[in-house]
Design a protein that fits this description.
Order of helices and strands: EHEHEEHEHH
Number of helices: 5
Strand content: 15-25%
Largest sheet: 5 strands, parallel
Helix content: 40-55%
Radius of gyration: 16 Å
Oligomer: single chain
Bound molecules: adenosine-5'-diphosphate
Strand order of the largest sheet: 3-2-1-4-5
Structural class: alpha/beta
Distance between the termini: 46 Å
Number of strands: 5
Length: 157
């Protein structure tokens, strides 16, 4: 069984992430989408909420599993999306470190779909604030949640 893991912050999941998930899912028997907690990034959504949003978006895809931490023991491959050369350096460095930590795990890079090379969760969060139409950037199932959460965090903070 070929299992891969796709880690990220997914705060929130964008159409760029979803495109990588769908393409990677075709290459492996199982794809584990793993929400990583980054102590240096202040999230809009909690890790549990991010998992919930992803769950809704991938509900119809048969071979996706979700996790809040890296279940790397059975996964031999880490999938990463590459948007631009700017992603490349940090991602290659990370892949070398990961391989050092676990020689059984390798990293595979998928180039971003050309429609999404500019897209990041950070850009989306910025656009929500300006009231931009979001259907080109976010899966439609979660647009309302992102708007609502942005509104709440604006009010609270
Ligand atoms: P970001 O917060 O920048 O959107 P994440 O940490 O959530 O990034 O991203 C997780 C993984 O998804 C990384 O491998 C990243 O390069 C990839 N990724 C993010 N956005 C895109 C996109 N638009 N197209 C392709 N890959 C992407």
């Amino acid at each position: 069984m070929k299992i891969a893991i796709y880690p990220g912050s997914f705060d929130p999941i964008t159409l760029g992430h979803l495109n990588i998930i769908k393409r990677a899912a075709l290459c492996f028997d199982k794809l584990i989408v793993c929400v990583m907690v980054n102590s240096q990034k202040n999230g809009l959504f909690t890790p549990e909420e991010r998992v919930e949003l992803i769950r809704r978006v991938v509900a119809k895809l048969p071979n996706i599993l979700l996790a809040e931490y890296a279940k790397q023991r059975r996964a031999r491959v880490i999938v990463k999306g590459l948007r631009a050369v700017s992603d490349f350096e940090a991602e290659v460095q990370m892949s070398v470190i990961n391989r050092k930590l676990n020689p059984n795990v390798d990293t595979m890079f998928l180039p971003s779909h050309e429609k999404y090379t500019y897209l990041s969760s950070t850009v989306v969060k910025e656009m929500v604030r300006y009231g931009v139409e979001l259907s080109d950037f976010l899966p439609r199932e979660i647009i309302q949640d992102v708007k609502k959460k942005t509104e709440e965090s604006r009010r609270d903070g």
